[in-house]
Design goal:
Number of helices: 8
Strand order of the largest sheet: 2-1-3-9-4
Structural class: alpha/beta
Order of helices and strands: HEHEHEEEHEHEHEEHH
Helix content: 25-40%
Largest sheet: 5 strands, mixed
Length: 246
């Protein structure tokens, strides 16, 4: 009886291994993907278009959310994967580095900073800077910078970069935009963009999945699609050495 039971256990073990292998290689089914608001305009249109045209067998659902909501959805297994700024997150998540990018200032012609060719961190402290819901720290400009350092920060709470640009055009002041967002601006708006000097660090973006995620092939399809939307010079090593193994 013991030998018969052992044979059954071995048989079941082999079946489980085969099921895992099948799941890893599968491309069909539903994919729920979250993208943080400050990255969505850069990635979402091209990513959705590529997956829709090249992999119609994937039932794709893309959601734009803030970081806190994304982490909650991942924790509850309501989302399969998410794109958000790199950071120290729970060990229940696997972090796959994607790309890095610097920051640019978008300046109103009526602002004194418009006449400068380059800006530093000190240039924007205490000035009329439009920021997002959690302040400039959302862009990792600097941990020592607080919302109170900007006179416009408490007037608007949201997550869309385009709204900040519109506010600068309508009211004045300055906002900070990611480097890869600049090509999305109209030609007339490009004249309002000013680079920062070396005092402003870049931000790093990662793809997060749960540690128990097994759909390896699907993960790599998403990674390849993301890589196609970002210039190679901005890629982290992960995107340069696909596929990723789970």
């Amino acid at each position: 009886r013991i030998i018969d039971h052992a044979r059954q256990v071995l048989h079941n073990t082999l079946q489980i291994k085969e099921m895992v292998k099948t799941e890893k290689e599968s491309l069909s089914g539903e994919l729920n993907l979250c993208i943080v608001s400050t990255v969505a305009p850069i990635l979402a249109p091209g990513l959705i278009s590529r997956l829709f045209s090249e992999h119609p067998e994937i039932s794709l659902h893309v959601y734009e959310m803030r970081v806190e909501a994304i982490l909650d959805k991942l924790h509850k297994a309501e989302m399969d994967m998410a794109v958000l700024p790199s950071g120290t997150y729970s060990s229940e998540f696997l972090e796959v580095p994607l790309f890095h990018e610097g920051f640019m200032a978008y300046v109103s012609p009526d602002d004194a900073l418009y006449g400068k060719e380059k800006l530093s961190r000190s240039d924007i402290l205490g000035k009329k800077v439009w920021t997002l819901h959690d302040g400039i720290s959302a862009y990792t400009i600097g941990r020592d910078i607080q919302i109170s350092d900007f006179s416009y920060s408490k007037m608007y709470e949201g997550g869309r970069i385009s709204i900040l640009v519109d506010l600068v055009d309508a009211i004045g002041g300055v906002t900070i935009i990611p480097e890869l967002y600049v090509p999305l601006l109209s030609e007339s708006r490009l004249n309002h963009v000013r680079p920062f000097d070396g005092t402003v660090p870049p931000r790093h973006i990662s793809l997060m999945v749960r540690q128990d995620y097994v759909h390896e092939r699907l993960l790599n399809v998403v990674l390849s699609a993301i890589a196609a939307q970002v210039p190679g010079i901005n890629h982290e090593d992960t995107l340069r050495h696909l596929p990723v193994r789970l």
